[in-house]
């Protein structure tokens, strides 16, 4: 835990450039982010700070249109996002890439920053975030390890 927020890590058997190529392709977002079901629009400047992904969450036909905004970016090193999740509020998500031999250690730290979700005690919030982020890293790993570009 980091300041009451759980840290989820995974060793990906791909160099940071390949992991970054997945993260920087906004159209792949629903392929690895648990809960995101479809992309509606990826702003051309993604993943530059201030750029947004416009996506939907949920299962059809109960979809909610939402967005994720970049609040910080160091290519091939880190991506800091504000993920909106109406009606729960918004979460800050930090994804860090660290070279590890021939691979990359990918770390995700997430916590609620606004809305009703902030009223839930942090240990309870993390009960849902940790398993979701473990699955997200598993999916991200599959995509990055199979990249050919």
Element layout with pairings:
Elements: E1 7-12, H1 16-23, H2 29-32, E2 36-42, E3 52-59, E4 62-74, E5 78-85, E6 89-100, E7 103-114, H3 122-145
Antiparallel strand pairs: 1-7, 2-3, 3-4, 4-5, 5-6, 6-7
Helix pairs in contact: 1-3
What does this structure look like?
There is one protein chain. The protein has helices at 16-23, 29-32, 122-145; strands at residues 7-12, 36-42, 52-59, 62-74, 78-85, 89-100, 103-114. With 149 residues, it is an alpha+beta fold. It has a seven-stranded antiparallel β-sheet. A hairpin with a 3-residue loop joins strand 5 (78-85) and strand 6 (89-100). 28% of the residues are buried.
How far apart lie the N and C ends?
35 Å
In DSSP terms (H or I, runs of 4 or more residues), the helix count works out at 3
Decide which structural class fits the backbone: alpha+beta
Query: β content, as a range?
Result: 35-45%
What would the principal axes of the Cα set say about the shape? Answer: globular
Radius of gyration: 15 Å
Please list the strands of the largest sheet in the order they lie side by side.
1-7-6-5-4-3-2
**Unreliable parts:** none
Question: What is the gist of this entry?
Answer:
The protein has 149 residues and is an alpha+beta fold.
Considering the chains and any ligands shown, give keywords for the structure.
149 residues, alpha+beta, seven-stranded antiparallel beta sheet, 7 strands
